[in-house]
């Protein structure tokens, strides 16, 4: 087996693992701390108890609508690499954290909700999709208060992998190459 064959075999194995990950979706957990009243009549008068709970979320391959929503959020993010190279790196990083933290939590929430972000109704064979902003904001607030920066980097990599942008771009390339309304500039045979 040559080095090219081993490279091809390793690429095929990586691609099959990525396909499996995309099809199965990815799960992650977040630890949420909240206070609640104790049960019973006298629980109203007693001090609230703090509860730590692990909640498990799944990120599935996004539909085109979810991918569109994620892309819109990604495009709104701004990062100035020149300012990050300055001597006042920490001040710039703090300003960016203040500006982008809620948006990053919203990206994770959109990826988790997927099509559940929309309330779907059917009327006479046609489907109507209405965004449920309250559901999105509740989940984004949960992630805003529970996700740590170290976990955020891992989630960003997972969301990017599960988004399957490679297949999306390949589909665009395939469809744009087979246009029949394209002017004669792309023909193999050039007119004389």
List keywords for this structure.
4 strands; two-stranded antiparallel sheet; alpha+beta
Provide an overview of this structure.
The chain has helices at residues 3-24, 64-76, 81-84, 89-113, 133-146, 149-163, 165-177; strands spanning 26-36, 49-59, 118-123, 126-131. By secondary structure, it is α+β, with helices and mostly antiparallel strands. The strands form two sheets. Strands 1-2 form a two-stranded antiparallel sheet. Strands 3-4 form a two-stranded antiparallel sheet. A hairpin with a 2-residue loop joins strand 3 and strand 4. Helix 2 (64-76) runs antiparallel to helix 4. The termini are far apart. The mean pLDDT is 81.
Which helices and strands occur, and which strands form pairs?
Blueprint: H1 3-24, E1 26-36, E2 49-59, H2 64-76, H3 81-84, H4 89-113, E3 118-123, E4 126-131, H5 133-146, H6 149-163, H7 165-177
Antiparallel strand pairs: 1-2, 3-4
Helix pairs in contact: 2-4, 4-5
Strand tally: 4
Lateral strand order in the biggest sheet: 1-2
- Radius of gyration (CA) equals 23 Å
Number of H- or I-type helical stretches? 7
Overall morphology: extended
Structural class: alpha+beta
**Binned strand content:** 15-25%
What is the straight-line distance between the termini? Answer: 49 Å
* Approximate helicity band: 55-70%
Which spans have pLDDT < 50 for at least 5 consecutive residues?
none
Average pLDDT for all residues: 81
Order of helices and strands: HEEHHHEEHHH
Major sheet description: 2 strands, antiparallel
